[in-house]
Write a structure and sequence with these properties.
Order of helices and strands: EHEEEHE
Radius of gyration: 14 Å
Helix content: 25-40%
Number of helices: 2
CATH class: Alpha Beta
Length: 104
């Protein structure tokens, strides 16, 4: 079983709902969420945004390899981006891999 730390962020309203949707998709596609940080607010970094981001960190337990986790993240982001386009918003919530501890 691998331990995976993921960073989530959204500047799309309703920001908290997008984080919750990302968590649901992660649970279905990647693994079990074993811990979750508090949600915190931050300014955009590296680009301009009219809104601040809501962010959190998830600790997961997953049977997937690092490559498979990255593939699933891309699938989740693509799926959520398609939903965003239906709602008229510019992009999906951001999901970043912070750390993966693999066991053999």
């Amino acid at each position: 079983m691998n331990e995976v730390f993921l960073l989530l962020g959204s500047d799309i309203e309703p920001r908290d709902k997008y984080l919750a949707m990302a968590e649901e998709n992660i649970t279905v596609s990647i693994g079990t969420i074993t811990k979750r940080s508090e949600i915190y607010e931050s300014e955009a970094y590296g680009f301009n945004s009219d809104k601040n981001f809501l962010n959190c960190v998830l600790l997961l337990s997953s049977k997937l390899s690092a490559e498979a986790i990255l593939t699933q993240i891309h699938i989740i982001e693509k799926k959520m981006e398609e939903k965003d386009q239906i709602l008229g918003t510019p992009h999906a919530p951001l999901i970043s891999i912070f750390f993966i501890s693999t066991t053999k």
